[in-house]
Amino acid sequence: MSFPHLLEPLDLGFTQLKNRVLMGSMHTGLEEEKGGFEKLAAFYKERAEGGVGLIVTGGISPNFRGRLAPHACQLTYPWQVSKHRIVTDAVHDGGGKICMQILHAGRYGYHPFSLAPSKIKSPITPFSPSAMSSRQVDKTIKHYANSAELAKRAGYDGVEVMGSEGYLINQFICARTNKRTDKWGGAFENRAQFPLEIVKAIREKVGKDFIIIFRLSMLDLVDNGSTWDEVVQLGKWLEQAGVSIINTGIGWHEARVPTIATSVPRGAFAWVTERLKSEVKVPLVATNRINTPEIGEHIIASGQADMVSMARPFLADAEFVNKAAANQSKLINTCIGCNQACLDHTFSMKRATCLVNPRACYETEINFKPTTNKKRLAVMGAGPAGMAFSVYAASRGHDVVLFEAKGEVGGQFNLARKIPGKEEFDETIRYFLNQIKLHKVDLRLNTRLDADVIANDKFDEIIVASGVVPRDLKLPGFDSPKVVNYQQVLNGDVEVGEKVALIGAGGIGFDMAHFLCEQESSTLQPEKWLKQWGIDNQYTDAGGLTEPEQHKPNREVHLLQRKTTKMGKGLGKTTGWIHRSVLKQHDVKMHTGVSYDKFDENGLHITIDDKQQVLDVDNVVLCAGQESNRSMLEQMQSSGLPVHMIGGVDVAAELDAKRAIRQGAELAMQI
Predict the structure, then answer these.
(1) What region does 529 belong to: left with phi over 0, alpha with psi -120 to 50, or beta?
(2) Which of 155, 164, 434, 633 is the most buried (most CB within 10 A)?
(3) How far apart, in Å, do the first and last CA atoms of the chain sit?
(4) pLDDT digit string (tens) for 523-548?
(5) In 13-86, at which residue ranges do the beta strands (DSSP E only) sit?
(6) d(CA 252, CA 171)
(7) Catalytic residue set
(8) Do residues 630 and 474 make contact, with C-beta atoms less than 8 angstroms apart?
(9) Quick one: which of 21, 2, 32 has its CA closest to 351?
(10) How far apart are CA 14 and CA 6, in angstroms?
(11) Any idea what the Cα angle at residue 289 is, between residues 17 and 340, rounded to 5°?
(12) Which residues contact 417 (CB under 8 A, 6 or more apart)?
């Protein structure tokens, strides 16, 4: 067996899990859509058939006030059971097991009806919660138990009680948010009674033959969070109260430390699960940035945990476990931790999906059925759009020839993967290269698709995926060799000096600033990364925080934008703050409302608020967007064949691999 520890069954006494892989909780947005539970059933069934040992749903509230948003899903009444049965039946038909996560948002509720232990507003929501009365606390405990009983009636194999990430239970546990003076506040023993009473009430309602997972916040990463002694004590009490499994929770949502973004090292928090392992006998689950079977195998084989939780990796590839079991990990579509189509969608009230797998959460809508009209297709450009289209079209039975003028595939991903913290983009290129081989796409590197090639071959249609080119600025002095574009820098075609001005503060500008400031990626050096973000793996203080290690800037970098809005406003909803923090760590100078005048031997001349100034810089790097690369489009159109444009050549806004890959998939489905 390729991954013997990862794929070993786990005996819980009354039931057995077929392996040590838990599909972690993710809210997809389907829970609230019309007909969404049927789509959710198809989503989960594919993952069950893909071999995962245990699935945990997105958070379902036990009552109205605990909802994350006004129209979020809850399980409170018997009439709500039937729609959940659609999901559980599908998972069981697929050979899997599934638990429903019970989540009360507490002060994180995005509505004016939220409740919390104390009237303390969350920094990430606009509403102040009402402090719960003693009666409301008692009723909420009963609501948890009622929801768990209904979950059992709906066919779930268990529930996960969400006790981490800063939601209601976590708010009771921590003195940070619990200022109560009754029996539910004050000493830790009192604050811990709320989660313990919930678990006891659930166990009494559901009996012994039902899985109860408790998501325990082992590392709060906020000031005045739990101490390590409190984490251990609560873990022991939970074991005595009857939990089946303890899952690891890392960080509150308001924490200013990244926990799941692509720049977080793989398995960066397994150490905290390992630390608890010697204190309790109940199986423990390690979480966060575990995205390959190799990482999962190492964590379990080394004794850091009994199971591993992977959430987004099952958006990226439903067949993750089956491929690992067949020793085909190279064929796994690896989660790159980008958040762009999953968490960014969730926090924008959109249906979640996956940048590298646009079928995720669209299993009933995007499918690649065998074609009944085989065509010979020419694809220009092996970037994300071209590769995705080629693989999906070839999987349907089309004869696909993929032309790439350069000597490697990947397009803009080849640039992105050079940015510190974006090394995961390598995995997507590896995945598509293996899929190209698997589906027998005729890949022709160092070959430009032009009129002569088309004339000498019999193609039925042409797909142009030639991407983008950097936008130039026509300003005095900008023809200097010291004014370069981001592609030239990332490709190593030019060297820049110790003082640099970056024009354009979108995603490219932020990436370029990071690239110029960080010579060695901390993502590949976990100990360095922990120090960079002030994470204390000795757990000396409450919350596990310490002072971040100070950086000594190796360059003077100026980031400039024309707009007067907040720098980085257009970055990812859940990751933008990380990029801003990194640049602050490196002392990048940020300028807004900038007009560019000229470049000469004195530097870059700019105007801000009608005041002229000169930035004494060695180089200017243009990061001011890009334009569609349509240099060959006219030749393609003159061929007389149908021509389709996908990716950046179609729309050259911010670099958008999510749209490019999805557009390639949708065209492949239709052609």
Answers:
(1) alpha
(2) 164
(3) 40
(4) 999 999 999 999 999 999 999 999 99
(5) 16-17, 21-23, 54-60
(6) 10
(7) 167
(8) no
(9) 32
(10) 21
(11) 115
(12) 410, 423, 424, 425, 426, 429
- Cβ–Cβ < 8 Å for 280, 250: no
C-alpha triplet 316, 286, 156: angle, nearest 5°:
70
Q: Please choose, from the candidates 20, 21, 1, the residue with its C-alpha nearest in 3D space to the C-alpha of residue 11.
A: 20
Beta strands, E only, 64-208: 98-102, 115-116, 130-131, 158-163
**Cα angle, residue 402 at apex, residues 399 and 407 outer, rounded to 5°:** 150
Domains in the chain with CATH codes: 18-288 (3.20.20.70), 376-462+655-670 (3.40.50.720), 472-519+554-624 (3.50.50.60)
Backbone phi and psi for residue 181, each to the nearest 5 degrees, phi listed first = -115, 5
The per-residue pLDDT for range 432-472, each reduced to its tens digit, is 999 999 999 999 999 999 999 998 899 999 999 998 888 88
Which tokens go with 525? Answer: 């050096």
Contact 171, 119 (CB under 8 A): no
What the block records as the tokens of 511 is 């990436």
Please answer whether residues 171 and 106 qualify as being in contact, where contact means their C-beta atoms are separated by less than 8 angstroms: yes
Distance CA 172, CA 163 (A): 9
pTM over 0.90: yes
Q: What is the Cα–Cα distance from 348 to 36, expressed in whole angstroms?
A: 18
CB 438 within 8 A of CB 625: no
What is each CA distance from 351 to 238, 268, 354, 558, in whole angstroms?
Answer: 34, 28, 10, 37
Q: Show the tokens assigned to 580.
A: 């801003």
Q: Coil, strand or helix: which one is 91?
A: helix
Phi and psi of 599, rounded to 5°?
Answer: -125, 130
Angle ∠(588,576,610) on CA atoms, nearest 5: 50
